[in-house]
From TrEMBL:
Segments for region (Disordered): 191-216
Highest taxon, organism lineage: Bacteria
Protein name, UniProt field: DUF3558 domain-containing protein
Biased composition (Polar residues): 194-207
Native species: Streptomyces thermogriseus
Length: 355
């Protein structure tokens, strides 16, 4: 009798453990069929119950926003939420916005779709044919795409760290579904065969910053005690994208991020918001204060520099809050970067247009 009761209790406990800590008999697809529970499980790389906790889709359209939660009991792991959505961005957004700061910490897709992931977020650009068809959802409203917007699928992970390869697969599979729904799917929406590796932060060589021979931030961009060469982090090798974050020493906590990409979607995205670009003499490309697209031997290449808000404050003080002097410091920094970074990529030497 006692043995039978023990067996029943054991079986009941096992059933509860399976129910609460695995996805046994759980939903196989989520978010209106856009993602699978297997993809979510792979992205968060931990066991538990997968359930949809919030989902919005646009009527007769392809936009969506969905949050999925992994829960578990008794095994000492925190619940994890993954929010995945369609998004509208502007320009070369992975390198120009605070949302995607620290581009050197991202793992970029080596091939297939245009995308990148970190431990907590990721993005995949939809094909150019989708940019005029796919918008976003904000609140309860569908936001249609604008004339300059770039369509993407983005994900954020709350608590814990994502498995980067798993997150990449989740994003690509969702992007494929969105592309099919919008009627703009293309063969380039493939999961990558691999991701770029991460490098360790290192001390900046002030004469060869970011590992680029001869590159040195101009003296007028540095301030003793506030913003001086400190340490840096670079992306691992990829065929098309490179980034370097320079974390300057000093009390200001300043940061400069430099990026280079020959990814056609990044270049098309930058040029889609082209109003302030100016032609470079000699038909060598186009540029503005912090971005350039150069005509190089193997095709166009995108270059950019981005300052964090704290470094912006340092530069404004350095320029005496005079707009022209402030712009000149920024221009000289980007010019110095182009002077050293363009040649190794078989790009022409250029002079940035004056403001």
């Amino acid at each position: 009798m006692l043995g039978g009761l023990t067996a029943v209790v054991t079986l009941a406990g096992a059933a509860l453990f399976i129910r609460w800590n695995t996805n046994f008999l759980g939903a196989e697809t989520l978010c209106g069929g856009i993602v699978t529970s297997d993809d979510v499980q792979s992205a968060i790389n931990s066991s538990g119950r997968i359930a949809e906790v919030g989902s919005q889709t646009a009527t007769a359209s392809s936009e969506f926003r969905c949050t999925v939660k992994r829960t578990s009991r008794f095994i000492g792991t925190e619940d994890v939420e993954v929010t995945i959505r369609t998004a509208t961005e502007l320009g070369a957004f992975p390198f120009t916005t605070a949302t995607w700061k620290n581009p050197s910490t991202m793992s970029y897709f080596k091939d297939g779709a245009s995308g990148a992931v970190s431990d907590t977020r990721g993005w995949v650009m939809l094909p150019k044919a989708c940019w005029d068809r796919v918008g976003s959802i904000q609140g309860s409203r569908r936001i249609p795409p604008g004339p300059k917007s770039i369509a993407a699928v983005e994900a954020t992970v709350g608590q814990g760290a994502a498995d980067r390869k798993g997150l990449a697969r989740l994003l690509v599979h969702a992007a494929q579904k969105v592309g099919e729904s919008a009627g703009c799917s293309r063969t380039e929406l493939r999961a990558p065969s691999d991701l770029s590796t991460l490098s360790r932060p290192r001390t900046t060589d002030a004469q060869n910053a970011c590992g680029i021979q001869g590159f040195s931030p101009p003296k007028n961009s540095l301030v003793k005690g506030l913003a001086e060469p400190g340490h840096e982090q670079l992306t691992g090798e990829t065929p098309h994208t490179w980034a370097c974050d320079m974390y300057l020493d000093g009390s200001s906590k300043s940061q400069i991020s430099f990026s280079v990409s020959s990814d056609a979607n990044v270049i098309d995205g930058a040029l889609r918001d082209s109003d302030s670009f100016r032609d470079i003499d000699g038909n060598k490309g186009v540029a503005r204060l912090d971005e350039a697209v150069l005509h190089c031997e193997d095709g166009d290449v995108y270059f950019s520099v981005r300052w964090n808000s704290k470094y912006d404050g340092v530069l404004l003080d350095l320029a005496g809050n005079k707009p022209h002097a402030y712009a000149e410091v920024r221009r000289s920094t980007f010019q110095s970067f182009l002077d050293s970074a363009a040649g190794p990529r078989s790009c022409p030497r250029v002079t940035l247009p004056s403001e």
